[in-house]
Write a structure and sequence with these properties.
With 100 residues, the protein is α/β, with parallel strands linked by helices. The protein contains five helices and four strands; from the N terminus they run βαβαβαβαα. It has a four-stranded parallel β-sheet with strand order 2-1-3-4, with helices on both faces.
């Protein structure tokens, strides 16, 4: 089971993307636990995550997140176009690629 955390300002805007990613995971036969939180709630959540995906609107948090995980877990900024299209499959594939 792969744990994928999405982080945005309040955890709200990524909720729709989480649903699309879960649908894509089912279609691809990938076992993944995917959830979203706001930055304020991310400190505990990152401990459970295998990969951290940042919404494009919080790309400024990338260095802070990498520091929090001591560069031991991959942190990525979600592609703005994929985010805008709510392309769950593309975001899921990008996150999984970081774990290989």
């Amino acid at each position: 089971m792969t744990n994928i955390l999405l982080v945005c300002t309040a955890g709200m805007s990524t909720s729709a993307l989480v649903k699309k990613m879960q649908e894509a995971a089912t279609e691809m036969n990938v076992e993944a636990n995917i959830w979203a939180v706001g930055d304020a709630d991310s400190e505990d959540a990152i401990k459970k995550a295998d990969v951290i995906c940042l919404g494009p609107q919080v790309r400024y948090l990338e260095a802070k997140m990498k520091e929090r995980v001591n560069n031991e877990k991959p942190v990525m900024v979600i592609d703005m176009a994929a985010y805008g299209r709510m392309d769950g499959k593309k975001v899921l594939e990008s996150a999984l690629a970081l774990l290989k």
